[in-house]
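Q: Please design a sequence for this.
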């Protein structure tokens, strides 16, 4: 079971000591162990399996006590309860009862109400089947295994209800099948598996209730393997399916966990801070291989799926999953996918594959729009009444990956998995636990949902099928029934693919049209609809551009469009300029479907590599929809920024940041091994300089910021073209700045000095650095003096060895002197500048 202290948001849940639970189980065994050794009354030497009956009606059966019948049974016998009475007793199935079946007679539902301890104990017996019982009460667990590993335990068609602790406990290499059972209102987890146990868990129902507490999970796995197939988890107290690390002193175990075709709704009804649909974790001694496919996970109190790995061998594949509606906090936002903060973020991200899922909101893996992942409303039939099957218009239809369904070719209803639900001629698996089934006469319109600019044209294609097959020669009428273009109409006849199309021109007004296609086949009518949003003209934004605007009312959004090519690495930055606005950026594709988003208290930055080219949109708003204020929005391409100014080693330029979110771009070329320095110093205003260095692919190599004077030093591993983005640290402040670039190993434009020489120079711009070089030998003592002769310069001297490593620095208000013993022989470099990069003046420099 889970840890005694509720975990903080963002943390995975741990388990209490399993040994503590084992001691409680064993204590109960001692009370009844005499049953196992008592002589079996009425036994014979017969070898044929018998059926021993039990009823509380005297004379109606062989026994009135279930335990008495079990004691009398031999290996392979059946104990059948023939009435629906309540039996208040605890049972022990000992190791001599291999092959025993304990079952209810067809049509009867006997209740086994426990008294003390665990209600059913299976002690070393193999091939035991328990069927058709209602198991409730007791003071501990519903069913637990003891002794040697229990092989081939089957529990089916049972109802576990109102049990204080776990319903079923398996460990010690046990193997089991648990199917078609109901687990209701439990004080602990429904199923606990540890220490190498393995099970097939299928067709079961799990539901929460008033007894739920901090340990009320659906399934807990600790160093155990399981196929969890086709189950429903509704309103569980905490986690619906949770994996947990073993204790640190446990032996290493590798487990395989397949979670397929499950419905998981409302996890965390009792413990919202731990309410996760699925908890996916692995550790150094608990190596787990996860396949999580075709599940529907909704309305979790915290995360739909939380993932955390601290080892390099655990892996998780998440595919064909609907996960949406989670309410847990990640910063200021909710996310349906999360990485637990107890685990390595980098390892978890690297070892988790997410593809072909419908995700409501992913702020952690940023998977939406990649690898077949989509977002949006799943369009369930009737979620208010727990019907999570897909409507005909669902975006999840035929959007999955056929390669991951393995042998599971039916859905949660037992219906076929591969159905051509979108009528495009190819049977593709749907996303989620349920497959949309095509029957009778049906039509569909594609695209089902679209967004176009007002004033342009729109085309839809109707497909008509009968019993899954396209029908040709069918007359179809198209009508725009609602919206700014209501009344537009057309008609067509289906071709051999069962398709016909309709196009119309928008009248230029914004709004949403509903398009209906209708007709009939052999007097069986059909209709289908689609929608198109006619958006008002969207102002464009270009790479290298900054625009200022404002959010003036609660709930207001602004939109901008831009053109990009496949492979562009884009940066959008939205910074508050006034008011209390908390910027939020959403990047949308050409159909205005979300790809990625970013938000912040005052400065939101979104970086994204685009997989395809075309038109994209930026949707801007306040993060919580309540605050207002002015903002700046800038757009830039990080791999080859537009408008970048060329900068050379030894060069100094001046420029300014004039608006919120503005980005200044520069480019330079360098060789592998160059030690570069970039300096950005404020010259006016309230600018807090920030310098970012990118390689030619748009990967950021380094970043530094400062109150007034930012200095970035770094060694380049490869040669080529590099880019600099300069801005204000929080995106809000403005002002002038100076920018300089220098190479610290062999500075460009350096003046050669000799020992005993004195020279003069001038720092006449912000961030300017003058470079000098001289030859020196190991152990030689040198003194460098920099004296201000005019202006407000605060002298700064920096000495570098031949490799570009700084040996020493010193600064002073007026007169700086640096004395040092040289560590190596070679050509040394001196950089002189103003201490804070802002002041200017003349100076005298001497080397002795």
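A: Design:
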């Amino acid at each position: 079971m889970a840890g005694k202290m509720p975990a903080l948001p963002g943390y995975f849940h741990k388990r209490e000591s399993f040994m503590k639970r084992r001691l409680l189980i064993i204590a109960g065994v001692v009370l009844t162990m005499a049953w196992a050794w008592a002589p079996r009354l009425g036994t014979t030497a017969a070898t044929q399996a018998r059926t021993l009956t039990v009823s509380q009606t005297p004379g109606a059966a062989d026994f009135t006590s279930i335990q008495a019948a079990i004691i009398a049974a031999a290996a392979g016998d059946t104990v059948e309860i023939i009435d629906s009475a309540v039996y208040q007793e605890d049972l022990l199935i000992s190791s001599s009862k291999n092959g025993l079946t304990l079952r209810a007679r067809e049509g009867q539902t006997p209740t086994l109400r426990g008294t003390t301890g665990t209600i059913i104990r299976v002690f070393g017996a193999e091939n035991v089947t328990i069927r058709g019982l209602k198991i409730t009460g007791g003071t501990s667990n519903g069913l637990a295994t003891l002794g040697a590993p229990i092989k081939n335990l089957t529990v089916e068609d049972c109802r576990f209800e109102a049990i204080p602790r776990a319903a079923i406990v398996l460990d010690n290499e046990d193997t089991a099948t648990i199917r078609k059972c109901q687990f209701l209102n439990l004080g602990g987890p429904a199923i606990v598996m540890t220490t190498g146990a393995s099970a097939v868990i299928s067709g079961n129902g799990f539901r929460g209730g008033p007894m739920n507490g901090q340990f009320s999970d659906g399934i807990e796995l600790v160093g155990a393997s399981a196929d969890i197939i086709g189950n429903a988890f509704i309103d569980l107290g905490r986690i619906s399916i949770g994996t947990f690390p073993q204790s640190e002193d446990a032996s290493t175990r590798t487990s395989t966990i397949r979670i397929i075709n499950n419905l998981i709704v409302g996890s965390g009804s009792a413990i919202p801070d731990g309410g996760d649909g699925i908890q996916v974790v692995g550790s150094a001694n608990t190596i787990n291989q996860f396949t999580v496919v075709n599940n529907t996970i909704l309305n979790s109190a915290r995360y739909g799926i939380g993932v955390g790995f601290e080892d390099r061998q655990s892996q998780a594949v998440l595919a064909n999953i609907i996960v949406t509606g989670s309410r847990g906090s990640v910063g200021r936002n909710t996310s349906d996918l999360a990485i637990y903060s107890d685990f390595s973020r980098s390892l978890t991200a690297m070892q988790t594959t997410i593809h072909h899922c419908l995700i409501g909101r992913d702020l952690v893996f940023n998977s939406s729009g990649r690898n077949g992942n989509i977002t949006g409303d799943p369009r369930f039939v009737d979620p208010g009444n727990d019907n999570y099957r897909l409507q005909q218009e669902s975006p999840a239809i035929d959007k999955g990956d056929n390669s991951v369904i393995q042998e599971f070719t039916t859905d949660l209803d037992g219906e076929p998995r591969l159905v051509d639900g979108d009528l495009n001629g190819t049977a593709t698996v749907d996303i989620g636990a349920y497959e949309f089934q095509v029957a009778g006469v049906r039509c569909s319109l594609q695209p089902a949902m679209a967004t176009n600019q007002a004033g342009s044209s729109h085309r839809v294609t109707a497909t008509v099928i009968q019993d899954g097959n396209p029908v040709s020669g069918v007359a179809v009428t198209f009508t725009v029934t609602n919206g700014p273009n209501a009344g537009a109409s057309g008609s067509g006849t289906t071709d051999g693919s069962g398709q016909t199309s309709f196009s119309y021109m928008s009248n230029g007004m914004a709004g949403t049209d509903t398009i209906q296609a209708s007709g009939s086949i052999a007097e069986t009518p059909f209709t289908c609809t689609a929608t198109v949003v006619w958006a008002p003209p969207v102002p464009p934004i270009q790479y290298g551009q900054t625009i200022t605007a404002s959010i003036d009312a609660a709930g207001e959004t602004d939109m901008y469009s831009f053109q990009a090519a496949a492979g562009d690495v884009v940066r959008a930055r939205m910074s508050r300029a006034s008011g209390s606005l908390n910027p939020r950026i959403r990047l949308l594709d050409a159909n205005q479907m979300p790809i990625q988003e970013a938000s912040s208290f005052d400065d939101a930055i979104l970086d994204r590599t685009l997989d395809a080219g075309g038109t994209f949109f930026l949707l801007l708003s306040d993060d919580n929809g309540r605050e207002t204020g002015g903002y700046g929005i800038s757009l830039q391409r990080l791999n080859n920024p537009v408008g970048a100014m060329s900068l050379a080693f030894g060069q100094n330029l001046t420029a300014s940041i004039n608006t919120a979110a503005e980005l200044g771009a520069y480019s330079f070329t360098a060789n592998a091994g160059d030690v570069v320095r970039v300096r950005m110093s404020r010259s006016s205003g309230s600018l807090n300089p920030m310098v970012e260095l990118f390689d030619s692919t748009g990967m950021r190599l380094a970043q530094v910021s400062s109150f007034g004077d930012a200095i970035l030093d770094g060694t380049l591993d490869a040669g080529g073209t590099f880019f600099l983005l300069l801005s204000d640290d929080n995106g809000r402040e403005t002002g002038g700045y100076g920018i300089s670039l220098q190479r610290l190993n062999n500075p460009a434009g350096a003046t050669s000095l000799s020992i005993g020489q004195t020279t003069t120079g001038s720092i006449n711009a912000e961030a300017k650095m003058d470079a000098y070089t001289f030859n020196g030998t190991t152990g030689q003592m040198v003194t460098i003096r920099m004296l201000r002769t005019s202006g407000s310069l605060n002298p700064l001297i920096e000495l570098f060895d031949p490799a570009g490593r700084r040996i020493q620095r010193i600064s002073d208000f007026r007169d700086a002197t640096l004395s040092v013993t040289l560590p190596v022989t070679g050509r040394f470099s001196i950089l002189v500048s103003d201490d804070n990069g802002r002041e200017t003046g003349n100076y005298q420099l001497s080397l002795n």
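Q: Thanks. Anything notable?
A: DSSP finds three helices and 72 strands in the chain. Residues 298 and 319 are 16 Å apart (CA to CA).
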